[in-house]
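Tokens for CREB binding protein a. Go.
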Amino acid sequence: MAENLLDIGPPSSKRPKLN
């Protein structure tokens, strides 16, 4: 679920979801 929040975040915050 939280992964979606990272997607809508700014490109700078688009870090690898594996981390």
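The mean pLDDT is 60.
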